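User: Here's a structure from my thesis project, written as structure tokens. My advisor, Dr. K., wants to see whether a designed sequence matches the one we expressed. Can you design one independently, without my sequence as a hint?
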């Protein structure tokens, strides 16, 4: 799977990307619980995409980190595709 092939609304995304930049996380409050979210830029050989990091993912990832998105989901926000783990996916840091 490659970034250039991703479509908004696509699920079951399984790919490895390199994070190039992580923005400052912001806090949110939903259903009485506080969490944090940060946008990051991720790339592979075919392009770049916004990667949405939730809660503990924010602390795992920094620029230069390679991550494996397992069962990810592509959404669209303001005309820009975004990749995230959604409700059922995982993010794992790839060593090396």
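Assistant: Designed independently from the structure alone:
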């Amino acid at each position: 799977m490659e970034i250039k092939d991703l479509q908004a609304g696509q699920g079951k995304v399984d790919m490895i990307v390199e994070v190039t930049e992580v923005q400052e996380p912001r806090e949110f409050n939903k259903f009485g619980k506080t969490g944090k979210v940060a946008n990051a830029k991720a790339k592979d050989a075919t392009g770049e995409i916004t990667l949405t990091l939730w809660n503990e993912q924010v602390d795992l990832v920094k620029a230069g980190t390679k991550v494996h998105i397992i069962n990810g989901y592509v959404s669209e926000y303001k005309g820009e595709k975004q990749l995230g783990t959604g409700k059922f996916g995982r993010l794992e840091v790839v060593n090396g």
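When you compare it with your expressed construct, this may help: The helical segments are 56-60.
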